[in-house]
Amino acid sequence: MLKLIIYQFQYSKRQWLGTIPLLFVSSLIVGTSLFGIASSIKTANINASQLFQMLIIFGGTTLFFLISNNIRLLID
Predict the structure, then answer these.
(1) Which residue ranges make up each domain of the chain?
(2) Residue 22's Cα: distance from chain center in Å?
(3) 13-22 pLDDT, tens per residue?
(4) How far is CA 30 from the centre of its chain?
(5) 10-14: which pairs have CB atoms within 8 A and are 24 or more residues apart?
(6) Where exactly are the transmembrane stretches of this chain (predicted)?
């Protein structure tokens, strides 16, 4: 079973290595946005949480389409 997993990884190594940076960038964007929302809630003077929510909504839908296409590429 382990040999089969290694063989399948070797077969699609380029696709996986192309997907890893996309997943890293998406987690970085979502983490930064959530951190910005949490810190802007604590600050009473400026309420910038709507800006960070827009990043999550529009960036999330874009990343959803990119990741779903990459997963489809990896499965095929």
Answers:
(1) 13-75
(2) 6
(3) 887 787 788 7
(4) 7
(5) 12/74
(6) 20-39, 51-75
